[in-house]
């Protein structure tokens, strides 16, 4: 790490908990201090010391067009001139809602919020209000933001720091949350048979991206759909990460599953703070002011955020966008897996659209327990060495990677070459 990043981290630690405003950014689990980023353009981020890196974090998912794309910058400049917040309805909110509804087929009506956490928190409140039931079923290693009800066997930072939940969350709250293993169809059936009439909803990451990268196996999502329908519970697909990312219509399009509610975030805001939840019109009609389920926000539907979201969605809806991105990502993942293979390192790699994962375990990873068999020391060394080679990866084995439209074929080749060199070196010990 350069001297400027180091000085900034020292300064930050005095005034911000751990020097960061979101835990995984601290890079603790990979044994180094964070780079402080000064600017980013296209596929690259630049730190305070002036070093450039090829970026596969993409702000943890939103930057599908790459950083600071000119078409989004242009609409943002326009929007700023007109005022940054009104707390009153605008046409921009309708434009983004219409685009979302046209893109995500299960969504009839959508409410904008400011983060993925707000989206999932509001969606389970709605599910509970609609069904008159309390129990929420989630899956071990899935992360749905940091609302109290979800901090049970959660993924992302909760997994990275190896903590079971969080102090400050009352037992009375989490007693209504049941977390079971991902991809375990038998367990789902067993639990639903036992208590299905008390279950408000099952919420799931349709591709798990907060314990690495795990696809649903053997009709897992279809079974969730069947079981929720059978017992009068709602199915919520948390597409905060996968939405507009693994396919234009999200994972629900990829796997042909229609949820009752969908939560969205990241790409929908084009790098500005936006989340959303939407779905069946009869369920959404329960939200205030139409119905009694309360949910609100001073900055919800913010004009800058809507403008960036609209322009981003317009860009990703252009013909050929996903084909090109998927091809690039597949080539990257094959290259990374090839590099690990050549070095004789046990690994498992997978991808969907422009999202990918690489575990240092030989297991076919189906759930969080499998993911934890990864060689975390090897991952940390890989992370640090890739950084030295100018490649910026997510600083945890339990996070997914993202490719953007700004990554060129040369960028992908350079990344594969770096991984080939680094993994060969690490295998030699
Ligand atoms: N759900 C999923 C699937 C996520 O990946 C995340 C964040 N990584 C969230 C919810 C929470 O979103 P946010 O960080 O915007 O609150």
UniProtKB/TrEMBL annotation:
UniProt xrefs under SUPFAM superfamilies: PLP-dependent transferases
Key words, A-Z: Cytoplasm, Isomerase, Porphyrin biosynthesis, Pyridoxal phosphate
Family matches, as Pfam families: Aminotran_3 (PF00202)
Enzyme Commission identifier(s): 5.4.3.8
Major location (coarse): cytoplasm
Modified residues (N6-(pyridoxal phosphate)lysine): 266
Isomerase recorded as keyword: yes
Taxonomy, superkingdom: Bacteria
Pathway(s) where this gene product acts: Porphyrin-containing compound metabolism; protoporphyrin-IX biosynthesis; 5-aminolevulinate from L-glutamyl-tRNA(Glu): step 2/2
Subcellular location: Cytoplasm
Stretches assigned to coiled coil: none
Reactions that this protein is recorded to catalyse: (S)-4-amino-5-oxopentanoate = 5-aminolevulinate
Family membership: Belongs to the class-III pyridoxal-phosphate-dependent aminotransferase family. HemL subfamily.
Assembly and interaction partners: Homodimer.
Stated name of the protein: Glutamate-1-semialdehyde 2,1-aminomutase
Species this chain originates from: Desulfoluna limicola
Gene this protein is translated from: hemL
